[in-house]
Amino acid sequence: MCGIVGYVGRKPVANLLIEGLKRLEYRGYDSAGIAVVTEKGLKVGRSVGRVRVLEELVQTTGGFEGFLGIAHTRWATHGSPSERNAHPHRGTSRKGDTIAVVHNGIIENYVALKKYLTDKGHVFESETDTEVLAKLIAELYDGNLEHAVQSALREVTGAYAIAVISDHEPHTLVCARKGSPLIIGIAENAYVIASDPSAIIAHTTQVLTLDDYQVARLCAGAADRASGEPWAVEFRTTTIDNVPVSRDVQELELDLQQIELGGYDHFMLKEIMEQPESIRNCLRGRIDQREAKVVLGGLNKLVRDLVRAKRFLLTAQGTAYHAGLIGEYLLQDLAKIPAQCEYASEFRYRNPIIEDGTVAVAVSQSGETADTLAALREAKERGATAIGVVNVVGSTIARDTDAGVYLHVGPEIGVASTKAFVGQVTVLTLIALYLGKRRFLSDDVVRAYLTELEKMPEHIRRVLEHSDMIHDSVARHVHRNNWLFLGRGYNYPVALEGALKLKEISYIHAEGMPAAEMKHGPIALIDEGMPVVFVATRGSQYDKVISNIQEVRARGGRVLAVATEGDDHIHQYADAVFPVPDVPEPLQPIVTVIPLQLVAYHAAVLRGLDVDKPRNLAKSVTVE
Ligand code: F6R
Q: What average pLDDT does this structure show over 449-457?
């Protein structure tokens, strides 16, 4: 989704902002832009397509020399991807000062504001809601940018993270947020802001975050620009009503290496391959074998409510929703608590009934997904206890919950979620065992599961060894435009996830469903050569899955089966077999999803597609 970078300080700003935008490319975007306060006024450059196109524009046109600037990657919502719709947007004050704004989010009352501003004589060049904000700030500007931003935001409804500069105040960057993420880095003699920590980490690990409706004024500069001395930096944080608020400086837990490719061709492949390590990190310190218990410090304060809960309601979108579906099975199976997983976007608008004793669980990698956040707030308002299963530390969902468990799988840069899914399923397994042990599971049973969980990093490593074989099998079918993914029980959500992975990065149409459902209609799709991927591991429904495989074979379909190591029987029915270690059924999704991630990755590469920048997709969907 859209990305923001801003800087005020001692270094020339243009290249620094472009480097920041490159770090945000993974989030998905369609156009980019930059504004710099120069000695000759405000210089703006915008372009459609990749950040490198903007970089070329900045280099070839020149004139972007300055020490204060903002930049943006845009993912179109209002108005098509075009140069004139790209940010920064500008407004001109009555005294002729120019204001530039970059914005993530949506201004919901932009139609009324646009009419008001048009009547005041402002002329709009774009179809965006952001330009309304730029013009509104300009209309209210009388020489104090911070006050103009505060006043404008009091008129606005919607969601925003914004960064604003003016050619009249060459040392001042003002930013604010409501509902969209924004981080302020405190660097040496400078401030750098961004919508995502990956654009900050090269400059500093000292950061501030803002709460909703808060504004920061960041100043860095010298009274005498020519000599550059004495240099002064200061910041001030307020509410949009100009009430001062104090914010603590925090240490960013991220290192540069974690967000670089490290020799892999794509972030997605890197993140698939590093899953043994990321799951080891996710489990670290959480398994106490001696006491046969799960240690989840983040839930301790709510443990009584959670153990007595009458119902768990899991809510999420996309891949996180598939993890939530597995959570539903785990909580019912291991903790014997009624559980249900719902799309956050649907839950919110169906006037949900929340009985006493309901625990709402928001599952999210980014912790910023707008639908998931809104559903969580809705559930809380109706009386649910809210917990988060989130990867990004300090994200909005993490902060909005009563308690939670972080995934600790490290930053996920690849647009297609892989290691976060496995982290989400692992954490949900830990939560189910944490509650199961306190409800009715014997120590022996808990200990047996914990022993198996500790082996997961090694199990995943063994599955990853088959990457080349999976590549060769996929190569035989990659020209086919329709695929099915089928599984039963715990592996039904895994089938959904396999289909989502394939369609989002290879653009092959794929559907996932419970294997038995195929007979109720979709079997009509199967023809000679159609690839059908079965998750067919040994377990309570193995024989039934084998029958489903035979039904597909009888109609000419090509079967690719994820199967248990040592299952020789299945080879007679399948064109390709992807082996996974033999693990208890509730833990199977952690290993069975790995071959499906590799199927999707290899299919996309074989089709010559840009795996890390799939068309139309954004890493974090912060609009509803
Ligand atoms: C698919 C994918 C998306 C996300 C979904 C929720 O690979 O990444 O489907 O899972 O947008 O995102 P988070 O987990 O950040 O809430």
A: 97
Strand partners, 191: 8, 186
Give the per-residue pLDDT at 80: 82
Q: Is 198 near ligand 1, meaning CB less than 6 Å away?
A: no
**pLDDT digits over 69-108, tens only?**
999 999 887 778 899 999 999 999 999 999 999 999 889 8
Are domains 3-254 and 267-454 of this chain identical in fold? no
Ligand 1: nearest atom to the Cα of 416: 7
CA distances in angstroms from 599 to 420, 484, 574, listed in the order given: 18, 13, 16
- Is 2 a residue of the active site? yes
CATH class label, 3-254: alpha beta
Looking at residue 179, what DSSP letter applies? Answer: B
Q: Which of 365, 369, 330 is nearest to 348 (CA)?
A: 369
Note if the pTM is more than 0.85. no
21-54 pLDDT, tens per residue? 998 887 778 899 999 999 999 999 999 988 999 9
Third-level CATH fold of 267-454: Rossmann fold (3.40.50)
Confidence of residue 623 (pLDDT cuts 50, 70, 90): low
User: Quick check: is 293 catalytic?
Assistant: no
Q: Measured in angstroms, how far is the CA atom of residue 84 from the centroid of ligand 1?
A: 29
Indicate the CATH number of 457-610 among 3.90.480.10, 3.40.190.150, 1.10.3720.10, 3.40.50.10490. 3.40.50.10490
Question: Region 182-202: what's the mean pLDDT?
Answer: 93
Write out the two tokens for 111.
């139609």
Long-range contacts, stretch 219-223, CB < 8 angstroms, 24+ apart: 219/8, 219/171, 219/172, 219/173, 220/8, 220/9, 220/10, 220/67, 220/171, 220/189, 220/190, 220/191, 221/8, 221/67, 221/68, 221/170, 221/171
The pair of structure tokens assigned to 427 is 């954490």
Strand partners, 100: 90, 165
> Quick check: CB of 47 below 6 Å from ligand 1?
no
- The pLDDT of residue 225 is 63
CA of 469 to the centre of ligand 1 (A): 28
Local structure of 520: helix, strand or coil: helix
- Please report, for the chain, the start and end positions of each structural domain, with discontinuous segments joined by +: 3-254, 267-454, 457-610
